[in-house]
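=== RUN LOG ===
request id: a7f3
mode: sequence -> structure
chains: 1
length: 410
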Amino acid sequence: MAFRIASTDNGCRCPDFVADVLLGIARERGIRRPRYAFEKGSSQGDGFIGVVTRVVIVDEDTGAEIRLICKHLKRNPNDTDTFTNMDMFEREIFMYRHVLPEIVRFQREKGVRDDEGFFAFPTCHYAGYCEETEEAALIFDDLKYEGFDMLEKRKVPSVAHVKMLFTQLGRLHAVSLALRREKPQILAQFQHLDDFLTKFMRKSDMESLQGKNCRLLQTVLMPEEEDARKFFQRWETEMWADVAERIEGKNAEPYAVINHGDCWINNLMFCHANGANNPSKITLIDWQMSRYASPVLDVVYFIFTCTDKSFRDQHFSACLDTYYNALAELLEKLGGDASEQFPRAVFEEHLKKFGKMGMAMCTFTTPLDTCYVEQYNAEPEHTYRANNREAYEARMRGNVTDFIDFGCMN
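=== RESULT ===
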């Protein structure tokens, strides 16, 4: 190893095994005498797996700067669970080393331009694991300094932001459908991407949480909604078992595709040119929950966790059109035909069949997003903020109403 990475005064650092990677990036960009500085890159509640560190590399001679993000995680030897944080971290490494490059390669072979296809993810300089220290790391450009930022996670995004996301989701899923027909051997390499989310949610501590959240949800139901009450009473103990069965890729064939898998507001970054309200670019980050499953899972996950009934009443139909049209347009450029490979009628059917995924996730996110519950803990029941009850009730009431009206509860 050429050098070690010293910790800065604030205690932030990167693992030593990526030192040569950082030096290589500096050399590639013309920095000959690099000085390194590190700062914390995430806050509590952001939902990141591992530690996120901002890296600044400054040329001692010229003052030129490079700004990077390093995500890293050290394996916990005391973690004996069959499913761990390192499993998720290694999934993201696999996505950046194998899946996303193949998605780009296939589109380039077909002559797809940047503005026509799916390229909405960060440039990854390194994705790997050190056997000696049992540490993993990913290194990206720091998009904050390219004009990208996250939206406020407790606010419903604008229709322009949602349509931009749905355009990219449609394109992402179109690539899988095209690969299925033209290069099935490539897609077959990624069909082992089973669902991590339900494995995570079915841990013992999370299973107790599903009971608390489903009991809380029942407080917004009307007395006459007996069928819904029975449904969510059953979900107190069976929610993730029910959802897991529907998420499996084999249950979505022959339409299963590569999903982002954790498609909510904190895993999106937008660029707003010249301070405009509407976004000019989007990038999808945090691919550790990626899966092979129905295309609609990314859609229902976002629509139930990040929008409210007012948004859906006004824009849901148009957003679905945006998604499907983007999928069909790119699939045609890639030599396919959406009317055969993912007909609109099948898309509508999947929204009903797999919509339970979105409802399950919003039982988990809505108490936090409305600040009705400050944080989840091991207590038998939640501690509530009474003054935020109205916000929780309005948001969850709308979710339940649409869940039923969309035909997803059956």
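=== NOTES ===
Strands lie at 34-40, 51-59, 65-74, 124-130, 135-141, 148-149, 257-259, 268-271, 281-284, 291-293.
The chain has two domains: 16-139, 149-406.
=== END ===
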